[in-house]
Amino acid sequence: MKSSLLAAARAVTPSVTLFWFRRDLRLQDNAGLYYALKENKDVLPVFIFDTTILDTLEDKDDARLTFIHQSLEILKQQLEELGSSLLILHGDPVELYKKLNPKAVYTNHDYEPYARARDQRVKEILEAKDIAFRTYKDQVIFEKDEVLKDDGKPYTIFTPYSRKWKAAMKPFYLKSYPTEKYTRHLLKTTPLPFPTLKDLGFVPSTIEFPERVVKKSIVEKYDTQRNFPAIRGTTRLSVHLRFGTVSIRKLAVLARQKNEVWLNELIWRDFYHMILWHFPEVETKAFKPAYDRIVWRNNADEFDAWCHGQTGYPIVDAGMRELNTTGFMHNRVRMVVASFLTKHLLIDWRWGEAYFAKKLLDYDMAANNGGWQWAAGSGCDAAPYFRVFNPHLQTEKFDKDMTYIRKWVPELDTQEYPKPIVDHAFARERVLRVYKEALG
């Protein structure tokens, strides 16, 4: 990776403005990139493979790295067609920015606790050198304090938040940022070095990624088809939203036109990012503190059976095998497997959240944390603790013909398939007792 540092030393002069790509891997309708190009000449896009994050990844064939790498290849090609290029760096962003002396750095907001701390440190380093650090809203429609209760406090219940969100929605918030008007302000340069995954210490994943295509026919039928995992009833755009290869504004425009239920899913996304911003402690603690008094069983063997889809509950096992194989799990099934882990097995939601964080292509801390705390009953606007999903009833309602299940559990009717790891009625009675004792 020395070549990229040498390229950076040559390319990043005091007349060059950097645009720092993070969760926004596209040229079109990119807020921070738009302002960088509009307000400056000689803008050089940069992406940093952050070793603070990468060093925590256990799997060297992590599919997300392959997805990012492929997305950056597309960006690099697009930039080179415009006479510019993409600077790739590898290391700790804080240490790298100590060595770089551009005219200014532009980027888009990130709301996760680590990212907030990192960006604050980068800002301090740059401003100490009289270099501007400017950030913009791009990955959500409304952020931080933009949708609050009348008393100025953040919402913790989704329904009133969504009503206020929709009332605040004006065409201004959905306007595209016309970056194409200013691409002439990109730095003209020859192609810059582009590292392989091997250079970064990883190997290519064989997982197939969802297309970067918005299928209107799916959006139109989303409200009637979204709960059935055997059919293509969801857009599969979550990984593209996570890494910003599609614009949230483009999707919100379509949602308003075609399907309010799908729009609500986008609003949930904003809601969880708002919660993480105002309550960053949810990263490690229950949103409702009383739930941290629950005495979890945390049986390692049962957790392992859950992870590998060997619980003896077909819909749970199908979901976990889909996740392990594809990096994706249908949202209805996500709720079922999360409820099963926390309620049937009485295993701490943080264990499940961490496993999803390792496996999900679309892993997003705000949504993942929100979803797991919802399932455990410990989160904001969560399912009440006495709501325990019955996997058999969920199967009857949403995979009656067992099409989804048989795809992922082909040995279902054979001696090879395990017996149920726990009896549903027993597990339900147990969890209600344990939760009630903890919550008083």
Automatic annotation (TrEMBL):
InterPro entries linked to this entry: Crypto/Photolyase_FAD-like_sf, Crypto/Photolyase_N_sf, Cryptochr/Photolyase_FAD-bd, Cryptochrome/DNA_photolyase_1, DNA_photolyase_1_CS_C, DNA_photolyase_N, Rossmann-like_a/b/a_fold
Keywords: Chromophore, FAD, Flavoprotein
SUPFAM superfamilies per the UniProt record, alphabetical: Cryptochrome/photolyase FAD-binding domain, Cryptochrome/photolyase, N-terminal domain
Coiled coil residues, start to end: none
Photolyase/cryptochrome alpha/beta domain: residues covered: 15-141
UniProt superkingdom: Bacteria
Pfam families linked to this entry: DNA_photolyase, FAD_binding_7
Cofactor: FAD; (6R)-5,10-methylene-5,6,7,8-tetrahydrofolate
Family from the record: Belongs to the DNA photolyase family.
Protein's recorded name: Deoxyribodipyrimidine photo-lyase
UniProt source species: Chryseolinea lacunae
